[in-house]
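In response to the reviewer comment on reproducibility (Comment 2.3), we provide here a single inverse folding case reported in full, input and output, so that an independent group could reproduce the run without further information from us. The structure tokens appear first.
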């Protein structure tokens, strides 16, 4: 099954939390966004996080937006749009 962009964003956040040993609550603090915002993204209540929110999440992980989206999963998604 091919995941949509929303599912890939959630997966990427979870992967980065694991990789950097950061809890979602700690991420909210580091990103300067509310815990409820992070929770709503990860639990599927907010299916369209804005680019500003994604940028803040990237800042919390200390990575660029390019690094956030530079994964095989997102490259495969891009190919799906082209086909």
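Designed residues, in position order:
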């Amino acid at each position: 099954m091919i995941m949509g962009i929303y599912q890939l964003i959630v997966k990427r956040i979870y992967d980065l939390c694991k990789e950097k040993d950061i809890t979602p609550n700690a991420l909210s603090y580091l990103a300067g966004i509310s815990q409820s915002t992070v929770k709503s993204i990860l639990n599927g209540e907010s299916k369209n996080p804005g680019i500003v929110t994604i940028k803040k999440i990237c800042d919390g992980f200390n990575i660029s937006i390019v690094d956030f989206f530079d994964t095989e999963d997102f490259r495969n998604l891009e190919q799906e749009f082209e086909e």
